[in-house]
Amino acid sequence: MSNKDLNNAISKDHEKYIAKLKRTKIMVRLSQVSILAAFIILWELAARYNLIDAFITSQPSRIAETLKSLYDQGILWLHVSVTVFETIVGFVLGTLLGTAAAIVLWWSNFAAKVADPYLVVLNSLPKVALGPIIIVWIGAGPMAIIAMALFVSLIITIITVLNGFLEVSPDKIKLLKTFGATKSQILKKVILPASVPTIISALKINVGMSWVGVIVGEFLVSKAGLGHLIVYGGQVFKLDLVMTSVFILSIAAALMYQAVSWLEKKFLKWQ
Q1: Nearest-angstrom CA–CA distance, 216 and 28
Q2: CA dihedral defined by 267, 84, 246, 218, rounded to 10 degrees?
Q3: Does the pLDDT value for residue 38 go beyond 90?
């Protein structure tokens, strides 16, 4: 077989492989959409035919009506924007401060050993228990809610990113040291680039953790936000409002997660 025939065969095999990947991706998306659509349809039918109590579980049509009502009242975007803003601020601060703390602990082995038991204890501690204390320290307002989101995501970020730093190949570090590289150069040239996948994984974890922190904070003290709507709906037994807020939260969290996944794909393509 000539080189030209071999190249053509390889090109065809590559095209088949790419086409297979595209088909698999399409099938995955279709399956995801089908499962979601089937769930919504079954939920609606079960509520309409009294197989479930719609007062307790609500139903898609009632959620749509509640969404329209909130929009008509002009308060839908207010509550959504408050919660999204608090979550994004807590998410960004948690990621930046957690990564910075991990760099400090990587830089100083002594500091890492001293901090290790405290990180373990803080990570295992139920963060919700500290909510009232944070409110007393900071005050009842958005800053307390952001602090709650920050505290929930900070420790796990430090642990995850630090472990990523420590798992970087020692041989690469030794090679740079052989050429007289400083610790700062090792950090910039090896540690950080090699740990980008770990940092992205920490971002994905932080998406969920930040939402948890914000909603818990809004449960405790808030005058606006989706957490406020959930608490209010539960207190006055407007469970349609509760389920609507949960529905909005699901969409917002999914969009935020997709944004992180998009960043991951951009990095992998660049890499």
Answers
A1: 33
A2: 130
A3: yes
Backbone angles phi, psi at 23, to 5 degrees: -60, -40
Number of Cβ within 10 Å of residue 105's Cβ equals: 23
Tokens for 230, please give them: 């959930």
Q: Which residue has the tokens 């929930």?
A: 152
* Six token digits for residue 99: 């990564």
Instruction: Let me know: does 83 contact 227? Beta carbons within 8 Å.
Output: yes
Instruction: Give the separation between CA 54 and CA 61, rounded to whole angstroms.
Output: 11
Residue 267's identity, in one-letter code, is F
The per-residue pLDDT of the chain, averaged, comes to 82
Q: Which residue has the tokens 């991706």?
A: 25
Place of tokens 């952001």: 146
CA distances from 182 to 174, 185, 190, 196, 240 (A): 11, 5, 12, 21, 60
Classify 123 as helix, strand or coil: helix
Question: Is the CA virtual torsion 44, 46, 48, 53 positive or negative?
Answer: negative
Measured CA to CA, the distance from residue 42 to residue 59 in angstroms comes to 10
Percent of the chain residues topping a pLDDT of 70: 93
For range 187-211, the mean pLDDT: 82
Are 219 and 162 within 8 A, CB to CB? no
Length of the chain measured in residues: 271
**pTM metric for this prediction:** 0.79
Q: Provide the pLDDT for residue 37.
A: 92
- pLDDT tens for each residue of 49-69: 888 888 888 888 888 888 888
User: What is the sign of the dihedral through the CA atoms of 151, 156, 161 and 165?
Assistant: positive
